[in-house]
Amino acid sequence: MTDTATRDTSAAAGPQPKRSYAKMAADESREDYSLRYAPHSFRRWSPTMVASTALGGIAYLADFAIGASIVFTYGFTSGLASILCAATIIFVTGIPIARACAKYGLDMDLVTRGAGFGYFGSTLTSLIYASFTFIFFALEGSIMAQAMHQAVGLPVEIGYLVTTLIVIPIVFRGMGALAKVQAWTQPIWLIGMVLPFVVLAFEAPDAWGAFASFGGTEGAGSGFSWVAFGLGTGVALSLIAQIGEQADYLRFMPARTEQNKRRWNLAVLAAGPGWVIIGAAKQLGGALLAFVALEAVGKTHALEPIAPQIEALKPWLGSFALPAAALFVIVSQIKINVTNAYSGSLSWSNFFSRITHRHPGRVWYIFLNLAIALTLMEMNMFAALNKLLGFYSNVGIAWIVAVAADLVINKRMGWSPPYIEFKRAYLYAVNPAGFGSMVIASVVSILAFFGLFGEYAEAFSTFIAAGLAVVLCPLIAWATKGKYYLARPNPVNGPHVEVPDVTATHACSVCETAYELPDIADCPVQSGPICSLCCSLDAECKDVCRTSSVPVLMPVPSVPAALSAPSAPPGPAAPVVRAD
């Protein structure tokens, strides 16, 4: 949101001028509360609809390429063990994160702030997450360009540009458009996903037996190797940050009530960590298709999902195998790349709003994310797939495991607040519990990845990252007695306050827009309530609220209690709360 007001340079000069927002940034039908708590009034989708939309975003075929690359490099036995181990780690760490995002209506960045990283500490993780979105956009875009080259002879360099431009109109319109695209394309995707394996079951029933004894194309052999297992797991764990993209949908989950709690729990489990069950199956399926096609198309093309799809469909579809496979690949890649572009725009928005105290609107950051992705495609990043993803895993897993450790261990032990506090007004700039553990785990594991500690440490660098993060985050929180989680108490998040309706709104003293209670903080400079985004964008207040005594301006209820209570339809807006 662009701050068009002229701000007083003295924080002590009293309430500052009102803020107006650029048209794009003020339109929440496009913004989707990109830097905010998602209010209950906006969460109009059912748990089933949110889950199906989130799962629609995992239609990507990078799993096919990743699985094939792992098995081709390390052999079937080690590759299978790697894929299953990585899936288990991703599933376990994804459960608490998915539940937190769905319960509190927050995206991954806002959850990270309050789960041990601090207000500016999570800025680094915003970059990590943004890099995940543009790396995988480039990977998925490369796969789509390969399909268009096969189908119509379009040069891949031009195909990269087409795959980039095609998603912009959809992502520009936000969650509503994404939900429609995922729903409309789901039947085509399901048919295209299942059909090749049905054909193989009839036409090549012995393929799985031969595949199970496959020793890879690099001489790894069909037996188990610990080094190959560690390296393969590292590649598969590059997908651990996918939980962030799932969270970008899960934050729109309606409140959990007695009436919907079973559907809610199942939807969050399926759309959160549950994506990796499908993902692991796709990795193994992609490796199988690539193995079957290997002799016909060669190693290079077998690793490109379009070629194995064509070979699998030929026995039944003949000359129609090419257009059918191309249609499936293009639909799959559009489904995932609208999610990559959308999540990237959220991540860049969070990053730049804190660094520059400006926010022109989520939609403008779509172009930044896509420009970086297009550059990676033109540099042919697909050729260095294993090394790139293996390196990224070390940082991604350190971040995700640190957040999960805070949610599961620190909060239960009382070293971390029992709720997620994401507002600048109540947070320290950096919390060493999460941020410190992530940095230490990342540095040590990256050094191991580059061979500094020997062959086995190199192979198991991602395990080193995970182990250090899960140990150091609680250890630092315990050693500091949780001191760096809250810079000051939040008066409306006390554990003993009952709330009749968390959807009651309060007007921000700066932008004069009404927001629900969880998005509001007490501001001594404004002498009244301030919304979380106006608070983030304020460059002049010098964070005096963290050092001065702040009156309780809003004697209203506990957010966690409200979010777990049965929700009622929003009534009339509550009176504006102001302090004279």
Helix and strand layout, with pairings?
Layout: H1 23-26, H2 28-31, H3 47-56, H4 62-74, H5 76-104, H6 108-117, H7 121-152, H8 156-165, H9 168-172, H10 175-203, H11 207-212, H12 226-236, H13 242-250, H14 261-271, H15 275-302, H16 306-317, H17 321-356, H18 362-378, H19 385-413, H20 432-449, H21 455-459, H22 461-479, E1 505-507, E2 514-516, E3 520-523, E4 528-531, H23 532-537, H24 559-564
Antiparallel strand pairs: 1-2, 3-4
Helix pairs in contact: 3-10, 3-13, 3-14, 4-5, 4-12, 4-15, 5-12, 5-13, 5-14, 5-15, 5-19, 6-7, 6-19, 6-20, 7-8, 7-17, 7-18, 7-19, 8-18, 10-16, 10-17, 12-19, 15-16, 16-17, 17-18, 19-20, 19-22, 20-22
Question: Overview of this structure, please?
Answer:
The structure is a single chain. This protein is mostly helical and 580 residues long. It contains 24 helices and 4 strands. A two-stranded antiparallel ribbon has the order 1-2. The chain has a two-stranded antiparallel ribbon with strand order 3-4.
Shape, please?
A: globular
> Mean pLDDT across all residues, rounded?
84
Secondary-structure element pattern, one letter each: HHHHHHHHHHHHHHHHHHHHHHEEEEHH
Tell me the Rg in angstroms: 24 Å
Widest β-sheet, arrangement of strands:
1-2
- Helix/strand-derived category reads mainly alpha
